[in-house]
Design brief:
The complex is a heterodimer of chains A (239) and B (106). By secondary structure, chain A is an alpha/beta fold. Helices cover 47% and strands 16% of the residues of chain A. Chain B is built from four helices and no strands. The chains are: A alpha/beta (239), B mainly alpha (106). Chains A and B meet through strand 3, helix 3 and helix 10 of A and helix 4 of B.
Chain lengths: 239, 106
């Protein structure tokens, strides 16, 4: 039986964390909460529920928390690692769809998407394996610009599209290293999938927006600008 | 001497005194103290003799000496800003490493 770990980064989520944990526990027994320097009661609430809780002593951002969770899951011998949001926007029953292609060896990374193009949408999933080999350079550039454009004008949707639900095989999780501490880890993960030529699948997932999760998302203009800034800054530093 | 020259010179004098204090407190090295003092003295000289930059400006094909100084200052400031931002980003990544290590060891 493969060990599936769900990583839930949480920053000041005391209102939703208990519900999210009990919901996810129905679908996945190994849960790692990464309390990202919360100033509220998130840490204690999570710990009372008997899940593994890691704590960042100061806030480092969602990307940093995910990477910490991934490293912990790998140490614990995870075969599959799932990323899940703590604000209650994801439906935990989607976890089954996310891990299925990995368990069947159809993909190394599974990305949840709410905005899957209907043209591509074969009943459950559509394989778009290997960005680099199948999409011409010109199209890649346009896609990149489209992603930037979307961040800029509708930060929330794109954050949701990339940043919510994902699953990694152990091999993929060992290769993907999130260095973008804040929100642009979402595009960084996609970059790394392409760079390491990881086989990936997108599966449609349902997301429920609550006022709470909307309020927590990257809605503001400056939030979106920050993502773009981080994205380019990382280019400068790593190259 | 015009009022602006006096204001600038007094400001520079204060900055140099501050720099000296920082050096005494060992907040900066002797090398840094030396470089900053020389830098501010040059700025002071340029303000006392604004015509001194005119020759350089003429040579460079720029109308006024002041313009030359402004161009150079802008280039310096923006490149300094860039390097500071890059360095800040590195620092942030280092902080994350430390925080992560602690989280995993706890």
């Amino acid at each position: 039986m493969p060990k599936v770990f769900t990583i839930i980064p949480a920053y000041n989520e005391e209102h939703t964390i208990a519900q999210v944990i009990t919901d996810v526990q129905k679908f996945c027994s190994d849960i790692i909460i990464v309390d990202d320097g919360s100033s509220d009661d998130t840490y204690n609430i999570a710990q009372a529920l008997g899940v593994k809780v890691l704590r960042h002593i100061v806030n480092r951002g969602q990307g940093a928390a995910l990477q910490t969770g991934m490293e912990c899951a790998l140490q614990e011998g995870a075969d599959v690692i799932v990323h899940f949001d703590a604000d209650g926007q994801h439906d935990p029953s989607n976890i089954a769809y996310l891990i299925e292609p990995i368990l069947r060896n159809q993909a190394e990374v599974v990305l949840g998407s709410r905005f899957l193009n209907s043209k591509f949408q074969i009943p459950n999933s559509k394989q778009i394996s290997n960005l680099k080999s199948q999409i011409p350079i010109k199209k890649q550039i346009i896609l990149k610009l489209a992603v930037l454009h979307q961040w800029f004008f509708s930060g929330l949707k794109v954050t949701d599209n990339h940043c919510g639900l994902r699953a990694f095989s152990r091999a993929a999780a060992e290769r993907v290293k999130i260095t973008q501490d804040r929100m642009s880890h979402a595009s960084e993960i996609l970059d790394q999938i392409a760079r390491h030529k990881l086989k990936f699948i997108e599966v449609p997932v349902s997301v429920k927006y609550t006022d709470y999760s909307l309020q927590k998302g990257q809605k503001s203009f400056f939030g979106s600008l920050r993502i773009i800034y981080d994205f380019f800054m990382n280019r400068v530093i790593s190259n | 001497m015009s009022p602006i020259q006096i204001i600038i010179l007094v400001t520079i004098a204060l900055i140099i005194i501050k720099t000296l204090q920082k050096y005494r407190q060992q907040a900066i090295t002797v090398r840094e103290f030396f470089l900053w003092t020389v830098f501010w003295l040059i700025v002071a000289v340029l303000f006392i003799f604004p015509d001194a930059t005119q020759t350089a400006a003429n040579w460079a094909g720029i109308g006024r000496g002041v313009d030359l100084i402004i161009y150079l200052a802008l280039i310096f400031l923006f490149s300094a800003l860039f390097f500071i931002l890059v360095r800040l980003e590195r620092l942030e990544k280092d902080v994350t490493k430390i925080v992560r290590k602690r989280a995993l060891e706890e």
